[in-house]
Amino acid sequence: MFFPASTPPVLSPSQHHGSMEDSFSKHKKELTRKHREECISIIEGIFGDGSSTHKDFIAINFFALEGWSLAELFKVRCVVAAPYVVPYSAPASFERQFRRELPLLYKYLQEAPAGKVGWKDVNHWMWPLFTEEWGSWRSHDLKLSSCPFTDPVTGLPTWNYRPPSPMLLYGFSKEIVECPAAYWPSRVRVCGFWFLPIDRLFSCNKCLEGSALASTELKAKNGLCLAHTRLQYFLSTSGQHPPPIFISLSSIGSMGFMTNPWAFLRVLGHVLDITSYRFILLSAGYEPLNDVIQLCAQESSSCSEQTPCNNDDGVFLFSGRFLSLPGSSISYNWLFPRCAAAIHHGGSGSTAAALQAGIPQVICPFMLDQFYWADRMFWLGVGAEPLKREHLVPDTNDSCGSSIKEGAKMLAKAINFALSSQVKERALQLAITLSTEEDGVAQAVKNLTEELGGGEIW
């Protein structure tokens, strides 16, 4: 069962309109409180009557650590599933401070038998659970011990009971990510990338309906409904032009990293001025960017021919060499094989889709694991050297246009590198390897099935 929480687990400053830092802090604290209350309510509604079995489990990712403590509260197995490497690491002083303040618990974890929760689990991903932020919630709201694996009354480690090390399913490939078994917990399982089957690629309802009726061959060939006629036309003209280059920064705009959408659009436009490329931009519904694109369309000489930016059919700019799609209903796994390259922010999903499609990548990372993916794609030879943020999304729109020209120059250079024969060949080779040697979803299901065959829970 899937029960979505209406409150977000994380909050960016741009999602709060207050200008004062303490105002944002208060808003974040209140939102965190509501989110955790909602999580408790959801899990209580499922397991509150005590009817859980050894085959029940709660699956969490690294941004949903509430699930770990709730699994402990309701004595349900907890499984971690993440399509990305751990996006955070413990502070350098964490182990030293832990050993000094909790010497018995440190000993308990260091001496853990095989298959039981130990220090490797804590060091790899569990360490935030031992911070005050989670400890106060555990003790005040859940009536658990403030520190996991300790008695709520004495505060001592639960020497008489050692819970099993939780299974951690990684949805990426060993061909792409280095997996140091000597340092990772023994219960980590690297499955391969989790790709959706072709009949689940579309978030547009009409595309979904058409996909359900079409043959597999037709789905792969076309797969779009009439609401996307401009996109289909743009792609169909690849016979007269090279395939377009895909661009999307996903939620980077709504996270507050794109402060000047007009400068971003000017960078892309200038690249088109100095190259022969064509672009498909997916704005992911970021309204400030959509507004700028709409304004640009209205100011163009053929504005009467432009399609409004508030529908999924898109709008043409820059003499028809730029197609902007305002929403996010087009599947990357469907679109990427029809593109020459992908310019994106380095999210795990975008990276995996480009790897599956066998197309080169140009990545501009902004936060968390995006820097890892950007460096890794360059190191593997399937992408250009990571772009700097100020080159793709300048904060200023200077009158002389120097920052725009510099950004366009660097972006064009990165695209040229990515489209070199060596990079394209390497991208295709990796795509073949991933498609023939791995089935990440099947492997994850197999691992879960084996896990649920046992009878031990929390």
TrEMBL record:
According to the UniProt entry, the coiled-coil residues are none
Show which residues constitute the signal peptide: none
Stretches of Pro residues bias are at 1-11
Q: Name one Pfam family in it.
A: EryCIII-like_C
Q: Where is this region: Disordered?
A: 1-27
Q: Which InterPro entries match?
A: EryCIII-like_C, Glycosyltransferase_28
Q: Name one GO molecular function term.
A: glycosyltransferase activity
Erythromycin biosynthesis protein CIII-like C-terminal domain location: 334-400
Gene3D superfamilies xrefs: Glycogen Phosphorylase B
Q: What is this protein called?
A: Erythromycin biosynthesis protein CIII-like C-terminal domain-containing protein
Q: What organism is recorded for this protein? A: Cuscuta europaea
